[in-house]
User: What shape does this take?
Amino acid sequence: MSLACPTCRNSVYEYRDGRWTEWICWRCGHYQADTPAFTAQPDLYRDIVRKNGRYFMQKYARYAAARAVHRSNNNSLSHS
Assistant: This one.
């Protein structure tokens, strides 16, 4: 299921770390999370993501790479 950004309608990317889920739009920078800190101060966190885009892109690139390896390992085990 692909979620649409509420700001620009582009697809948003979902990232999970086991406790929280984050959603970010790489087109416009819209950010949302289900963390208590984000819920308390959403504008502050959106501003942090916009000002530190490179950090978040690297963070999510590592996340995506780790998930790809995990899926690849699971697929190779199921074919054994």
